[in-house]
Amino acid sequence: MSHTLGIRQAQKQKTRQALLDAALELLEEQSLSSLGLREVTRAVGVAPTAFYRHFRSTEDLGVALVEEALGSLHPMIGDTVSAAGDSAGRIERAVDLIAHHVESHPAHVRFIARERHGGVQRVRRAIREQLERFAEEVKVELAKHPESKGWSDDDLLMLAGLYVDQMLMTASLCLEALEASEEERERVTRVATRQMRLIAIGRRNWLG
Amino acid sequence: MSHTLGIRQAQKQKTRQALLDAALELLEEQSLSSLGLREVTRAVGVAPTAFYRHFRSTEDLGVALVEEALGSLHPMIGDTVSAAGDSAGRIERAVDLIAHHVESHPAHVRFIARERHGGVQRVRRAIREQLERFAEEVKVELAKHPESKGWSDDDLLMLAGLYVDQMLMTASLCLEALEASEEERERVTRVATRQMRLIAIGRRNWLG
DNA sequence: CCATGCAGTTAACAACTGTTCTCTGTAATT
DNA sequence: AATTACAGAGAACAGTTGTTAACTGCATGG
């Protein structure tokens, strides 16, 4: 299958990735709806018209960024849930996993948090669809736990959605606290930990 | 005190409000960081330079919009919490209150949800500060409930934050479902209701 | 080895942006 | 009644934007 991808298409994907990277960086201080095509090409060091060889518009660029950003988030969510069984230690580990992911992929987290409710409809929908798929996966993972005995499929999906939202919320708070003091960052993670613990307690006592 | 506000300043506040209203409407399909000053004045039917008589920049306009939008949200949150004691009926009432508020002030809800993580730092901070004040008020309200016996101040604030976030989350989901089918909207409110119920159960079993 | 395809360039366009300066009419003050 | 303050208009500015067209050079497939 993977025929070594001729030198031609390799270069194309290289500049395409450069455009994505530059856009992601520019989006740290603005939102997608104000991101200009020329702005991106200028940052890469390529002619404005070259943009069209890769994307029809910045909107399309945004949709592509959703794939990339949530692609990096995907394994994190899986790990988090399989780690977040119930006991105190597991939840702490899960929150640490989130905090660590924020440190290694801050731009991705920022992009998703920002554009989830952002001004570009197609991007909003792309994020929503991906998050729904995530919730579905989380549901499947949750179903394996012994605490899920007797739960309806609907309730499991409800809980999964709550977890996904809470993860993003926590990630966004960690992001804002990234450049704050050490104690502030620890305060954020401690609050997030207790919130997830409270949800876990609600889960344990849901039935009956 | 309230001396009937001369005809001069009355007109000024009138066009100021017109600018705010026009901006809020334009922001339904974009984010603040792409909102142009000329765009707003054009929508109002006033010269571009008139904008400077009221705001230094669109960023300032955004900060003013935070006051307005969260001003309308404020009583809603108070009602919701005092309604959301614990029992099933109360929670249903609270979610209905949120849904109703979204129907009557959709642009306000959209603005807050969008710019909370948006591309303009000052606006983000303004929203965060206001939401922290809300959480503080919710904490005070929660402390009055009998279920809060034995809770630490810190834990109450943690719970209050969880409630505030969940309210905004629910409001945003209601907003996206506003133009969807009747059954879709009911599905959203039913999921939100059960999520809040699960949190309430977690609250009841937090200690011990 | 030559012809084709195509990533990226250059130049130009009309439209738009934020900002400054100057001016006008009129409500408020004296 | 005369003067001042000031909300808004008008025109002009230098920059920027997205998009089109015609181009160049080079990797690729016959």
Question: What would you say about this model in short?
Answer:
With 208 residues, chain A is mainly α. Helices cover 74% and strands 0% of the residues of chain A.
How many domains is the backbone of chain A divided into? 1
| Principal-axes shape call of chain A | elongated
Order of H and E elements of chain A:
HHHHHHHH
Q: Overall mean pLDDT score of chain A?
A: 94
What is the CATH architecture descriptor of chain A?
Orthogonal Bundle
Largest sheet of chain A: none
Largest interface: A-B, 37 and 37 residues
CATH superfamily grouping of chain A: Tetracycline Repressor, domain 2
Strand content of chain A: under 5%
Helix run count of chain A: 8
Helical residue percent band of chain A: over 70%
End-to-end gap of chain A: 54 Å
Q: Count the E strands of chain A.
A: 0
Radius of gyration of chain A: 20 Å
Indicate the multimeric state: homodimer
Low-confidence stretches of chain A: none
Stated plainly, the CATH topology of chain A is called Tetracycline Repressor, domain 2
Can you give a write-up of this model?
Chains A, B: Pfam families: TetR_N (PF00440). Chains A, B: This is Transcriptional regulator. Chains A, B: Keywords: DNA-binding. Two copies of one chain form a homodimer. Chain A is mainly alpha-helical. The relative contact order of chain A is 0.11. Chain A has one domain (57-204): Tetracycline Repressor, domain 2 (Orthogonal Bundle), CATH 1.10.357. In chain A, helix 4 crosses helix 5 (106-116) and helix 6 (121-144) packs across helix 7. Chain A has helices at residues 7-26, 37-44, 58-83, 88-104, 106-116, 121-144, 153-176, 182-204. Chain A binds a DNA duplex (30 and 30 nucleotides) through helix 1 and helix 2.
